[in-house]
Amino acid sequence: VGTSRQTRLINSVLRPFGTGAFHCGVEVYGKEWSYSEIIRAPSAASVLTGIFESKPRRCKGHSYCESLDMGSTSMSETDLDFLLSMLRREWLVSEYNPLRKNCCHFCNDLCQRLGVGSIPRWVMSLAGAGAAVA
């Protein structure tokens, strides 16, 4: 999450314990998809959704750490476009919550719908722990 030295330090301490604060994106068909509370595009359709695309491993505002191979989807690009249009209505900017509905939750949902399974638990474990306490 972010590009700060502090975040990298925190993650270097937390990672051996199986957790950390991570930004998450899913690369499929040459684009990386994620979710944020920041409005990223000026068009009226995109103002409501928190879903956005970026070049793989180049999401602005975040430092790239590692890629996890989730396998391949059998979904066509056309079906992916349709899926993303549906998800844009479910993943709204106004509903973003750093503990309960963040980029990692979105990526987990997208991976499941792509048929490649859930993302590893350790990617979301810090948000889950925070949500349990909050």
Write up what this structure looks like:
The chain is mainly alpha-helical and 134 residues long. The protein is 40% helix and 9% strand. A three-stranded antiparallel sheet has the order 1-2-3. The two termini are 20 Å apart. 24% of the residues are buried.
Describe the structure concisely for a colleague.
The chain is mainly α and 134 residues long.
Compute the average pLDDT: 79
Spatial sequence of strands, sheet with the most strands: 1-2-3
Percent strand equals: 5-15%
User: How large, in whole angstroms, is the Cα Rg?
Assistant: 15 Å
User: What is the total tally of β strands?
Assistant: 3
State the order of secondary-structure elements, H for helix, E for strand. HEEHEHHH
Residues in helices, as a percent range: 40-55%
Q: Please count the helical segments.
A: 5
Biggest sheet overview:
3 strands, antiparallel
Our measurement of the CA-to-CA distance between the termini, rounded to an integer number of angstroms, reads 20 Å
Structural class call reads: mainly alpha
Note the overall shape.
globular
Element layout with pairings:
Blueprint: H1 5-14, E1 26-28, E2 31-35, H2 44-48, E3 51-54, H3 77-90, H4 103-114, H5 121-133
Antiparallel strand pairs: 1-2, 2-3
Record keyword descriptors for this entry.
134 residues; mainly alpha; 9% strand
